[in-house]
Design brief:
A: Immunoglobulin-like, B: mainly alpha, Cytochrome C Oxidase, Chain A, globular
Chain lengths: ~220, ~575
């Protein structure tokens, strides 16, 4: 229903992010409608009219308890639903034999593959349906690895190596912008991630990784 | 407290004999009301600059790389076309000015100064000289911040969050003294805020009028009290942080530079440890203002006074342990991110409690739609949207996607514009009669409120949509990205709305200045409100009340009480029966 909103998702864990997004969307949407209908109704019903005195009340303890506990419960449930996806995406990299090194600099992504000396500027090639482990570094300022269609984002911090992963379910060419302000060239710092079928990827690797990168 | 009143009595006599000169009355004044006006003018003047910078940013996003009307005179080399570095400067300074030089001076500075002594029944702040110093130090910080626009290399351009090492090494941005002045200005401003905070806390603890128990204090005073505590504890962290940043830039230290063994994330920890309480520093006074104005124009007591006060206290405590939600994808240990999700979800609860209590206040009310009330209702409804959109970010997996997109921009503007600025407008319209002794014009007030409310929503609501579509914040030209091109029409729509929102402020400027000089003389208590400030004359004289200070007999929100034939019962009205005195 909201697919016109979010760009098409192509990664495995992106589905879980989208599911949570929609869940929160419906919960907050329902709360929004509830609060606004109530507020508008009160504004109309209790507008100033002659001859009526306002209700003299200082509150209602059962109501206070109810509207403390109900939101708290909903929020606790949302927390418990968020934890597994977070743990899966950021805390546990699935086993894989496919590694890519990404070093960000003002204002490019530099991509390298183990066993090859070649550096690719602003383009990454990976096979479909394969867990890709990214070793993310930066050589100057903080950048942010963002692939909207993978629902993936991770800052690249100079002085650190951060290991991330993704697995794409659909071959294609995906835009790869930098999402953290990194200087005057921040806007326009973007690359492309080419997701190939295994055969296409093998061919690309054979041609471009000097014959070594083929896995 | 009776001692205070006796010594103040002697003070009043003294003041009567000794007229203060122009300089002592209008410039270096120690009178909290004059300092409040000074902070208000500082904030409103800076708001013009901050607003114009926002329009420049919006123009660039809607019609990238085209000349910005009016900028041709300043940017002569490009004929008014903004360069990327200038664009970065524009949004950095828009946020810096709006947060530090508009919202803080108006809400905490102006209304903190104006409301606290008048509403607790004190003659002035505890330390009037420190109070004066607080304003002039803030003004100095403002001058230093403005000076940054005129130095070679331009002003700070690393975002209002100034993430290191982008901000720590001049070569990375090409900005040299601009960023240095940014650091120095915020350092100086931090000192000003600390002086103000100490004053507010001391005054509220020690100088309440007889009978003004803590739980008889108006909620706006509660909110300012809590804000002052947050200011006192949060600002030193920023102040230290900007000093360290300045040392990295100028003295060759390496707090935040990995090349010298520093840690970029340390800056983020320091910044957000300040930054999240800061968000509540910006919104708590507005919550207090809404809680103050709603009962007056509902003609009924605030719903759940104690729940309101305690939820603000809860927010203040929790605000220290949620800051990590700004750093979910920063490289911080993801296990820590999980802990911050829990606290962030929890802090939504006191906000929900407040919202439901505001709705409870409307229930069974007799609502008078005055201009301050309309702005207060706008605050409540816009704060609800800002609060609900915050839940998306609290969920760590969802935050991975929406972090650094326009969804965040939409959220922060619903909170600080929809929240704080509507709160500020409500406060200005509500206390203008007491502050300046004249009423504002109602027709102009409506002409200001309705366009502001409508165009605010048309400007900021669509930002949720383009944010979910993936548009990153702080980009110069969305058309550089293929996946954003299909939603460019929204950027145009937002910019047109923002321009109209800007035009919608003209009636406010006219109203403010026209009323200042030619408005109808304000009566003592134009809104029939209960709180103490309305017992002082409009505007209140130096030391606020005549020889005797008011005595307080009840809570601040006794509207439509059965004890009174009128629908209001001032805090100072003596109880009719002894039973009535114990009632609240």
């Amino acid at each position: 229903m909201l697919d016109w909103w979010l760009p098409e998702n192509v990664s495995t864990y992106g589905q879980e992010i989208d599911w949570l997004f929609h869940l929160i969307y419906y919960i907050t949407g329902a709360t929004f409608v509830l609060v606004f209908v109530t507020m508008l109704a009160f504004i109309v019903m209790y507008r100033d009219r002659p001859g009526r005195r306002a209700r003299y009340t200082h509150g209602n303890t059962p109501l206070e308890i109810a509207w403390t506990i109900v939101p708290a419960l909903i929020l606790v449930i949302l927390t418990f639903l968020s934890v597994p996806a977070w743990s899966k995406i950021k805390m546990h990299v699935p086993p894989t034999d496919f590694d890519v090194n990404v070093t960000a600099k003002q204002f490019n992504w530099q991509v390298g593959y183990p066993g090859s000396d070649k550096v690719f500027l602003d383009e990454m090639h990976v096979p479909v349906n394969k867990v890709v482990r990214v070793h993310l570094r930066s050589q100057d300022v903080i950048h942010s690895f963002f692939v909207p269609q993978f629902r993936m984002k991770q800052d690249a911090v100079p002085g650190r190596e951060i290991v991330q992963w993704f697995e794409v379910m659909k071959p294609g060419k995906y835009e790869w912008p930098c999402a953290e302000l990194c200087g005057f060239g921040h806007s326009g710092m973007r690359g492309w991630i080419y997701v190939h079928t295994p055969e296409e990827y093998a061919q690309w690797a054979a041609e471009n990784l000097e014959g070594k990168g083929k896995k | 407290m009776s001692v205070t009143s006796a010594s103040a009595h002697a003070h009043v006599e003294h003041a009567g004999h000794h007229e203060l000169g122009f300089i002592r009355t209008y410039v270096f004044s120690t009178d909290h009301k004059m300092i409040a006006r000074q902070f208000l003018f500082l904030g409103l003047l800076m708001m013009i600059l901050g607003g114009l910078l926002a329009l420049v940013v919006r123009w660039e996003l809607a019609w990238p790389e085209t000349p910005v009307p009016g900028l041709g005179r300043i940017l002569t080399e490009t004929g008014g076309i903004l360069e990327p570095s200038q664009y970065n400067m524009a949004f950095t300074m828009h946020a810096t000015i709006m947060i530090f030089f508009v919202i803080m001076p108006i809400l905490a500075g102006a209304f903190g100064n104006f409301c606290i002594p008048l509403m607790i029944g004190a003659r002035d702040m505890a330390f009037p000289f420190l109070n004066m110093l607080s304003f002039w130090v803030a003004a100095l910080a403002g001058v230093l911040m403005l000076a940054g626009f005129f130095v070679p290399g331009g002003h700070a351009a690393a975002g209002w969050t100034s993430y290191a090492p982008l901000s720590a090494v001049p070569e990375y941005t090409g900005v040299n003294w601009g960023q240095n002045l940014w650091c120095i200005s915020l350092f100086v401003l931090g000192i000003s805020s600390m002086m103000g905070a100490i004053n507010y806390i001391t005054t509220i603890i020690n100088m309440r009028a007889p009978g003004m128990k803590l739980f008889r204090m108006p909620l706006v005073v509660w909110s300012l009290f809590i804000t002052a505590i947050l200011l006192l504890l949060a600002l030193p962290v920023l102040t230290s942080g900007v000093a360290m940043l300045l040392f990295d830039r100028t003295l060759g230290t390496s707090w935040f530079k990995p090349s010298g063994g520093g840690e970029p994330l340390l800056w983020q920890h320091l910044f957000w440890y300040f930054g999240h309480p800061e968000v509540y520093i910006l919104i708590l006074p507005a919550m207090g203002i809404a809680s103050e104005i709603l009962p007056v124009f509902c003609r009924k007591p605030i719903f759940g006074y104690h729940a309101m006060a305690f939820s603000m206290i809860a927010i203040a405590f929790l605000s220290w342990v949620v800051y990590g939600h700004h750093m979910f994808v920063s490289g911080m240990n993801p296990a820590l991110g999980m802990a911050f999700t829990v606290t962030t979800m929890i802090i939504a609860v006191p906000s929900a409690i407040k919202t439901f209590n505001w709705l409870g206040t409307l229930w069974g009310a007799r609502i008078q739609f005055t201009v301050p009330m309309l702005n207060a209702l706008a605050f409540v409804s816009m704060f609800v949207i800002g609060g609900l959109s915050g839940i998306f970010m609290a969920s760590t997996p969802v935050d991975i996607y929406i972090q650094d997109t326009y969804f965040i921009v939409a959220h922060i503007h619903y909170v600080v514009f929809g929240g704080s600025i509507f709160g500020a407008f409500a406060a200005i319209y509500y206390w203008f009669p007491k502050m300046f002794g004249r009423m504002t014009n109602t027709v102009l007030g409506h002409l200001h409120f309705w366009p502001t409310f409508v165009f605010f929503n048309l400007t900021f609501f669509p930002m949720h949509i383009i944010g979910v579509g993936g548009q990153m914040r702080r980009i110069y030209n969305p058309m550089q990205y293929e996946f954003l091109q299909h939603q460019q029409h929204w950027n145009v729509f937002i910019t047109v709305s923002a321009l109209l929102l800007g035009l919608g402020q003209i009636p406010f400027v006219i109203n403010f200045f026209w009323s200042l000089f030619a408005g109808k003389k304000a009566p003592l208590n134009p809104w029939n409100a209960n709180t103490l400030e309305w017992t002082a004359s409009s505007p209140p004289p130096h030391l606020n009340w005549g020889p005797t200070l008011p005595t307080v007999y009840r809570g601040p929100y006794e509207y439509s009480s059965p004890e009174s034939r009128d629908d209001w019962l001032p805090q100072t009205a003596p109880p009719v029966t002894a039973a009535g005195a114990r009632r609240h």
